[in-house]
Predict the 3D structure of the following.
Amino acid sequence: MKILVTGKGGREHALITALSESLEQHELFAHPGSDAISALATRVDVPSLPDLIAWMKANAIDLCVAGEEALLVKDQGLANLCAEAGIPCWGPVKEAAQLEASKAFAKHFLKRHAIPTASYTVCTTAEEARAALTEFPIVLKFDGLAAGKGVAVCPDLAEAEAFISDVMEKRIFGAGNLVVESCLVGPELSVFASVCDDQYHILMPARDYKRIRDDDQGPNTGGMGAVASREIVTPEVLARIEREIVQPTVNGLIQDGLKYRGFLYFGLMLTPDGPKVIEYNCRFGDPEAEAVMPMVRGDFANYVFHAAKGTLKPELLNFAEGWSICVITASAGYPATSHSGDVIHGLDQVEGARVYHCGTRKNAAGDFESNGGRVLAVAVQASSRTEAREKAYEESAKITFDGMQRRSDIGKLHFE
Ligand code: AMP
Ligand code: GLY
């Protein structure tokens, strides 16, 4: 089979690695991919989405797997164009990908289908937003693309006022509405499901660590590490999530005529009143994929292929028991800025761990150097959380580069 994955980061490196370890040998391609990914998959360098579709058609690609979300909502949509070209695609059509692309769309969907979520108001002006500030803390979300900076959890009026002024008056993210929603408290949980029309299959749950510093301090990042295990939640809680959130979401997609084939990521808060949806993402999580993928057993490539063609075959996929922990190293200045060109040392010393490249490139001497905010993910799967954590840190410590940042409490905070 010829499989193309879209994306270039640690998640795609983990997905492509898992595909390469499927039962049969497959020919793998990545667009745009990275220097590290090129060891497993041939990079496809085309300038636009229509060019990518034409390339896949000309090269008889059997399956397209959406790693990142961007192409799903670009132009007419990756999955929509794949459908026209007759290429099975694992990733939803543009209309359904609005669940991730538009916060207001997602909130209306959740309300319409009575799926537990924070109460909210969609505001079109600064005045409306100010009028909606009825309690503190309160959560403000810009309804559009904001490079991960569009959500503010505001403890008081002053912070809420500053965010409203920036977003609705100074328009720092451009035009768009503001969603004002009540603040939920509780541990967060990432639940992943494969959704194929009216069928679904719940995969391994995970938890990520979004803040840059230990103890969940400092600004939000793309994620500084993740933990995956069946044991993160009890079977009772998972059953409740399935009953109150996953099944109603799949029913809602069908009722709304939104065709969905792909991974669906439920960002949840486990509140004292039960699990509630914070957000949907129409793809696997990053860095959760780097923790979950080392646990995948079975025939991942055929599992995805059949699902993209319309039949979920959960029997093709298993997950290892135990725990998997991934620790990220990030470049100097991240997340405010990022630093590239720092040579990475020690990669060849790592043993018994997976190293996924989030943002690296090869320099003229053929050595890997940093190329972006998050640089590397080191992941270890083991029977206990402590074992996975200790080994992940031991192996990650062998890797060094100038200015690198790494949290020391991944897999510990929220568990001990
Ligand atoms: P989002 O982009 O919607 O996932 O929001 C980013 C982060 O903001 C989440 O991972 C949460 O930590 C936090 N957050 C979002 N919505 C809420 C909410 N209603 N209550 C509390 N925290 C929230
Ligand atoms: N781990 C957060 C995300 O993938 O959006």
